[in-house]
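Here is one record:
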Amino acid sequence: MVRVSARVQELKRICWLIVAGLLTACSPAPQFTDSKNLPVALADFAGKPLLVNYFAPWCAPCLRELPLLEALAREGEIAVVMVNYDPTTPAELRKLAGQYRIQVPL
């Protein structure tokens, strides 16, 4: 594991907040389903900044950042949603969430 400085971490957070702000400005708001096949709307996360992370289960860098995003969500200052952009079944997403101990909507 590579350690990054607090300054680099803060710059990454700022970049993610900018991306999240740009995504929330889109209209109409997209609708999603989670790994349990339940509907998830961006409006469900009103009240705090929302980081929307797009990933693919075959993408090694994406998989490396899943635990980091989970830890960021646990800090409680920002909400995190991870959006899979590959055709994956809810069962496959549940397996992935279990493997990486992901609690945020996937």
The chain has three helices and four strands. The CA atoms of residues 89 and 96 lie 11 Å apart. The mean pLDDT is 81. The longest strand covers residues 50-55.
